[in-house]
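Incident log entry.

Two folding requests arrived from the same account within the same minute. Monitoring flagged them as a possible duplicate submission, but the sequences differ. Recording both here for audit purposes.

Request one:
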Amino acid sequence: MIFDLDDTLCDYGAARQRAKRKIDLLLGEHGVPSGAAYWSRFDELDPILFARFTAGELARDEYRRLRFEIPATDVGADRATASAAAVRANAVYVACANTDIELFDDALPTLASLRAAGVELSLFTNGPSDGQRAKIRALGLAPHLDHVFISEELGAAKPSPAAFATVLSLLGRTARQSVMVGDSPGTDIAGARAAGIRAVLLDRAGQWSDPGVETIASLAGLPRLLKAAP
């Protein structure tokens, strides 16, 4: 069993919002206006820059700085001010989003139930290694997992079938012996399926509707679903 981390086992969305509130205060100290326009631009840029980072086109620190600096520049700050604010904003964001974070209530009971049933538990998450490792430590997840795979360490990221193939190779398992559970239809589900892996979509908000995709509203529904034929 392979789990995604962010917004699957832990509430990364809530941690991001806490980080953003702290950064709003910080940017105000630098005279950089933030608010809805700033964060809309950030949310647009972050996945684009992250994709470039996972493809090896941007260094880790460059990716992190640019996601803050470019929006700051776009809303009228001068380059020096934007750059200084970006460095500080990134430090706040990384610290908050990766350590001020909580597991969903259904995460540990589900992992415990699966482990008691003899299921091998793995984590496969995209992101910079330092941030994801810090997050796993803050959440106390390591004792509940048999394997941890992070895209930066693998040199390949979801949804690439090659990334999933690498994970399977390291696990010594075939695609038919594995199940991927995640909250992203594109990154987790489509990627796993392209690699021939059974995929289960965690849709806590009930926003996806695809009869061709196995879906659960809570991790608590996973053990029973796994007993059914795919």
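Request two (distinct sequence, not a duplicate):
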Amino acid sequence: MNLARPLFAALAALILPCAALAEGAPAPCPPFEVVGNGSDLVLVPGLGSAPAVWDGVRDSLARDYRLHLVHIAGFAGRAAEGDPATLIERTKAEVIRHLDCQKVASAAYAGHSMGGFLGLALAADHPDRIARVVVVDSLPFFPLIFNPAATAELAAPQAAGMRAQIAAQDDAAFAASQRMGVQSLVRDPAYHAQVVDWSVTSDRATFAGAIHALMTTDLRPRLGEIAAPVTVLAAANRFAPRERVEPLYRSAYAGLPNADITLIEDSYHFIMFDQPAAFETALRAGLAD
């Protein structure tokens, strides 16, 4: 008698019902911190960043808002989950699941960089859940930074090359590239080490996949689906002067003619670090009813 066959059948009888139950069970609530009191405000960091990017305004905002601090899976020390190619869709779903878990019908939203991009997508997908959006230094199509005539098709080879290059780097090479890159992202050197640490403690495949998704996803055709008021904060500096930045943003957001575009001078990409006072003033203005 072959004992392996009945033993396998017995194990399958035990395991398969458990697997079926797991598949039918609701997903767990996301591990997002909730602090403060007041109307609900979702705060989402950018590519490879931690929720601590909001620390400069956290305590102040928590006096007036109930903050929902999103930590994107695979970024800045949080374990990666799922296929890197689906990060955008999975993160949108996780934000909505968090609101459901917290019994929040509708919330304001502020996102930096990739977080701002996610806010636009969420507002288009769920107009009943996102009450207003503040986008911090982000565009509805990232390749416009390099080429105002860019399309998803034209950007696809460059995006694939960037993803492959990042994935192929060893830890030392990736860290070196991040130390170099941060100098054009944060003007204040006091924050350089922190931003680099967030990147190097991110899952590399998730990081590379997110860049590819941002380079090949054009939200401009969907801007007209956004009903929520949108405020866009854009950084301007001597390398990216107002006369170049303002037309770029106004053209990119032409599908949202009522969007409020506010330029903040003498700042690089991390406006909250380079111009903290001006940042909080503009953020609060964008969140105001």
